[in-house]
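dude i think i finally got it to work??
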Amino acid sequence: MRANDGTRTAAEVLVDQLVIHGVRHVFCVPGESYIAALDAFHDRDVAITVCRQESGAAIMAEAQGKATGRPGICFVTRGPGATNAAAGLHIAQQDSTPLILFVGQISREMREREAFQELDYRAVFGSIAKWATEIDDASRIPELISRAFYVATGGRPGPVVIALPEDMLVERIAVPDAPACEPVEIWPGATDMSRLQKLLWAAQRPVVLLGGSRWSETACAAVARFAERFALPVATTFRRAHLFERADDAHGILTAAARNLGHGRRLRASTLREPIEIEFPGRHG
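look at this
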């Protein structure tokens, strides 16, 4: 709520940015380190699912991101709360799922005293998140939240971690909101597709390897038509057999979970003899 002087708490600014960027559902395990943010959610049009354990909250948020293509949002408290959420972050990184994890952090004046379950979240999550940061300056909240949405959804989607110092969240500031995030969708141009077509015509043993997340029925159907047109064998990666359910011997098409069903040897032999391997990483709407 804006005061008469036009200021809001940093936590209110944070929640306002989430609403602007289209967030309508948040998963969390409540903690006093970010209680100001929980207060800011009051009377907002955002559903909050309170979970019993942070791993479950992060995995729920990851599932939502995987299903919608928009970042799943999770809030956890510092220290053990954050490390418990690591499983969901790892899944998001492995499956190219947009996810933003907000972590309550100790007050800024208590840093480097090993007090109140302090962790350096950039160091802890730097290897499994696309970007890990901490908001020290409350006036930069709109900028950094906007960047988090673009990082989580851009290129290969993945998880972002943002630490929120407890004292920063209660500061009152007057800042403009950022524009709503509009993810940039990319696709190959006509020249790229023409080159791919020539490579396929010249290839002896090309293979289509399907995997990743964010596949829609339309995208799966398009890949099936593509495979039929060029009579391409199709293999699916671990836990992605549902992406290509057809098996049409007339077109030389085979669907297989390469690691699960024992086709890895044949797939490796094929790609070793033929340098063209077509990968669809699963970032298709």
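The two ends are 36 Å apart (CA to CA).
im so relieved honestly
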